[in-house]
Amino acid sequence: MTVRRGAASGPAFTIADVARTATFEQAVTVADAALRRRCVPRTGVYLADAALEFRASVLEITGRSAHGLSRARRALAFADGRGQLPGESVSRIRLWELGFRHIDLQVKVPGPARTNYYVDFAFHDVRAFGEFDGTMKYIDGRLTDGRSTAEVFDREKQREDWIRGTTQYRYGRWGWPHTSTAKSLGDRLSAFGIRPPG
Fold first, then answer.
1. 6 pLDDT above the threshold of 80
2. Please, what is the Cα angle at 75 between 87 and 184, to 5 degrees?
3. Would the pLDDT of 171 be above 80?
4. Spatial contact of 89 and 67, defined as CB atoms under 8 Å apart
5. Residue from 75, 76, 85, 108 nearest 36 by CA
6. Is the C or the N end of the chain the one with fewer CB within 10 Å?
7. Which residues neighbour 77 within 8 Å (Cβ) at sequence distance 6 or greater?
8. What number of CA atoms fall less than 13 Å from residue 54's CA on the CB side?
9. Which of 20, 10, 8, 11 is CA-nearest to residue 63?
10. What's the pLDDT at 198?
11. Distance of CA 98 to CAs 64, 101, 165, 167, Å?
12. pLDDT at 4
């Protein structure tokens, strides 16, 4: 595919450079964010065709040099714009290292009164959900909508109770300390009875 000069070319060159030179975790995190900005116009919608086109543009650029080409291809193949936060990107890498192969992202679960909840990760083959919990969701005023930390915690608990009760899935949460290694995340998930299949 030939790269079309325009709105996509600047970001595509940036992602190509990062994918060739950065660590796998860094490259995936940056590529996830770029895909999200371009391919997620609103919650619950992922423009897969746009993601494929943008990924092809980046791959065309990376293919102009052999330097870091295999590294870039690996990161871009793994990237997914449905990941909302850097912690989710790193979590997905650790989950893959643990042996989870069927990981669904930002999964919709019907809530009460015609609302919808979205869960970061679903592992349908082991009937479980997972969520990366950054502390910002509880303390950043832009994310709490003026609610106190206690109110945010209570709302999260009610949300989790509803999801577990209506789906009968196991439900695990983790944060940055658990993503340092695959073993750390695996130990955390095991505490919730969540293990990779097989």
1. no
2. 40
3. yes
4. no
5. 85
6. C
7. none
8. 26
9. 20
10. 82
11. 34, 9, 27, 24
12. 41
Where helices occur in 63-181 by DSSP H, the ranges are 69-78, 86-98, 136-139, 141-144, 149-167
Q: What are the tens digits of pLDDT across the range 134-148? A: 755 555 444 556 667
Ramachandran assignment for 122, one of left (phi > 0), alpha (psi -120 to 50 degrees), beta (any other): beta
What distances in angstroms separate CA 108 from CA 75, 86, 168, one per listed residue? 26, 20, 15
Does the pLDDT value for residue 9 go beyond 80?
Answer: no
pTM attached to this predicted model: 0.86
Count of positions (residues) in the chain = 198
Give me the domains of the chain, ranges plus CATH numbers: 9-82 (no CATH), 88-191 (3.40.960.10)
Residue with tokens 């919990």: 133
- Give the model confidence (pLDDT) of 49-76 as tens digits: 999 999 999 999 999 989 999 999 999 9
In single-letter form, the type of residue at position 68 comes to: G
What is the layout of strands, in order, in the sheet containing 116-123?
104-110, 116-123, 128-132, 170-174
